[in-house]
Fold these 2 entries.
Entry 1:
Amino acid sequence: MGSLRGAVGQYVKACFALETFSGHTFSAALHDPGGIVVDIGCNKGDFAAMVLGRFDCRYHALEANPAMVALATKRLGIPVECLAVTGSEGEIDFHLSENSEASSVFSSIAGGGPGSIRVPSTTLKAWAIDRGIESVSVLKIDIEGAELDVIDSWDGGTPRPVQWTVEFHDFIDPSQRPRVLESIAKLKALGYESINPTWPDHIDCLFVDKSALSGIRGVRLLLGWRCMSVFHRARGWMRRLLRRRSP
């Protein structure tokens, strides 16, 4: 049943020009061939392998865990930068987890693990300026809570992603929920349309620059995504209601 539901979900997304790769949704229709894809929180390279296998792009992968950097570099055949993108430049404590995907700058998310290490850190803007990157086709962020600092420190300028595909982590640390909502509100205020197929959670959030939604195609995509958002919210409320009624 779960696989059938997943297949139906993927079909519905495809009808609205959306695809999900390793838990991250974005619109392939808005990706220009040869465009830049930035993967912050590459981990083992699952998302990267799927994107590189499907799309013509210039790929930048970043990961704070040195062990995962070595693994992903070997697997993908491209350089993976050992770097934490956060809200400041310098160095930061990175807490290792038994589950490599849960390693985080937040100990509350990493949980008990083998300890912490100091890793170099930077902001999204500083990283992009250092590499001469002004715009990004797809920006994927999955960094166990630090996405809040990345968005908080970004001023809406360089780099200007056409799409952000973000996993927020208030489902692990509920105390982050107010900041998650603030981050979403900030991106909307900076001109992004929000699509969240996981509402009322924020596990797979897509933000699309409205300036990229021009012409008839753009209007159709925008209207379709807003209809999807209504559906996902209705489904989310129904799930909440059923949970409350269950013994």
Entry 2:
Amino acid sequence: MTINPNYECSSEGGVRHWEIPYASLEDATPVVTDPAEVLGTDGLQLTGTVMTIDAGLSIAVIDFTPSMVYRHDIRNVLTYNGAVENTWGAITIGLPVYYDNSATMPADVHLSLAAANNLAQANTIFGWVVPADENDVFPKGVGGFAGTYEQAVMQHGA
């Protein structure tokens, strides 16, 4: 098999950056490098990572590119009992990560392992846990104990 020397490729495919008004975001005060979720039907919203913000125009540029990998803080909560976190799990490679708008989430943390928020509404899949590099050690945290961990996440995107 011969590979044509005149080719171009990209490991992540087409990059998808869109301007989104703050008012259309779950968190209307976006921060650069934080995860974002566009308002819509519970569990089906568009999610991505904030690249830039324009406070004057109240617009955020969000990367919705599928398979892009960014470091994000993840809460290891699995389930809620009303307004209280109920169960926690260890973070391991391949686990789904959700955009979690629960009122109980710590400030500046938007991702968790919980498929439903504290109101029992579906959380939207944000992506999956992946190793940050060859030295990344798993599991992170242990079941039964609450924690927030910085972790590489391959985003679901658009």
